[in-house]
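In response to reviewer comment 3 from the previous cycle, which asked for concrete evidence that the modeling workflow produces usable outputs, we include below a single protein chain processed end to end. The sequence was submitted unchanged, and the resulting structure tokens are shown without manual editing.
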Amino acid sequence: MILLASRSPRRQELLARIGVQYRVQPVAVDETPLPGEKPEEYVERVTRAKAQAGSALEPTMPVLAADTAVVLDGKTLGKPRDESHGVEMLLALSNRTHEVMTGVALAHQGEIRYCLSRTTVAFAAISENQARAYWATGEPVDKAGGYAIQGYAALFVRHLEGSYTGVMGLPLYETGELLRQAGLLSF
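The workflow returned the following structure tokens.
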């Protein structure tokens, strides 16, 4: 049994897929990027902070945390503030390639282990009407980069190189490696 320091239904679904028993314990961490902070530094800082916050709440349990950033032209896009911002992000991603970084951290026995998944995603051209129709589904509201690859946004993905589950928010290969290293997963 591990503690999942996240409310994300996608992360819960992915852990269930690999048979990991977990209890959800969301944590409050400031996710504001620091001035001049590089995207990979941001993801690592926030992911480690979530693991540490979860561990402070339940010091005897292994705590798994993750954070995902969509990066375009070296800038982290974050979650859309509103419809206008969401449409703006999708149009910026339209017919372009971007990177999705997902950090995973496991706090266990006084140590925090961390790894980073990097995935390149190429979007097809997206019209403003498509972007607005996608926003109207409600799916992109709380998603990094304003899209969910496992949903309707799959229609925008022309090519992906890396971890599909990493783009969803929890790269299973990297997660499995951390759990195996800690003796929490047998296969």
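The chain has six helices and seven strands. We consider this sufficient to address the reviewer's concern, and the full set will be provided in the supplementary archive.
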